[in-house]
Amino acid sequence: MFFRGKEDLNPNNIPSHVAVIMDGNGRWAKKKGLMRIFGHKNGVKAVRETVEAAAEIGVKYLTLYAFSTENWNRPQDEVNALMDLLVDSTHSEIDTLMKNSIKLEAIGDLDSLPKSTRENLQKAIDKTRNNSRMTLILALSYSSRWEIIKAVKEIAQKCKNGDLNPDTLSESDFVNALSTSGIPDPELMIRTSGEQRISNYLLWQLAYAELYFTDVLWPDFRKDDFFKALFEYQQRERRFGKTGDQLHAETKPVPDASTYNKTA
Ligand code: IPE
Ligand code: IPE
Ligand code: MG
Q1: Which of 37, 96, 180, 184 gets the highest tally of CB atoms within 10 A of its CB?
Q2: pTM (2 d.p.)
Q3: Is the pLDDT confidence value at 262 over 60?
Q4: For residue 44, which ligand has an atom nearest its CA?
């Protein structure tokens, strides 16, 4: 089945959480003979379109990978430019967030961000606190292994203090120690630019996510590209370890007592 547009989407099967790896800014700029930072600057429009599309269609949580722990290893001028861009765009996009009632949150090692980036981010988080249509989570100076180690340390400390018992430690104790605590796992992960890898992103949370890869470079990503990813998601059968037959049987109406009597 071909995707023709937003109207082809089943409104009853919209993922509640979509995670995105916004990749390909550098290559987009290079293709145009521009410096990499122009790719990052032109990625802001794609962020706006994705945020609006997600809110419009009823996605409740949208997580965008904006800067990884490993990205600190890029040339210093690119890192500086990215940090400046983050300050500028959190500032310039605040109206869009307010207009669409979108709440901003951030995950990652925020203490490692420059003061101006951190302060601007905090201002936007505070200002949008009471918005309720969708939560936009920026993964900043984020890596999944960093997050997992941080959770393990927190749990180890609680066990030491006697607040948690290692013998009864459960999956939910671990989930509560992650930075995404309280947020449902993403049902769909989108990565642009043709790369097919996870790059240290939400390793625990993506355990059962559908993965969608597109060759579109991030600065070219538009609402329809987002809706197309959702459409592809809706064509997938999510089995969670079961067989396809089991799933189809579960969706059939359960016969009531009178049916049993008739066939007995
Ligand atoms: C993604 O684009 C943005 C960040 C990682 C901050 P890239 O900068 O990775 O672009 P490519 O992969 O080099 O094309
Ligand atoms: C992942 O993209 C991080 C972000 C999109 C912020 P990268 O471009 O840094 O990923 P790798 O290193 O090529 O896998
Ligand atoms: Mg990249």
Answers
A1: 180
A2: 0.94
A3: no
A4: 1
